[in-house]
Amino acid sequence: MNDNELNRRLEKLEARNARVESDKAWETSWARRGSIMILTYIVVVFYLRFVVHINPWINAFVPVIGFTLSTLTLSVIKKRWLDRRIE
Question: How many domains, the chain?
Answer without folding.
Answer: 1
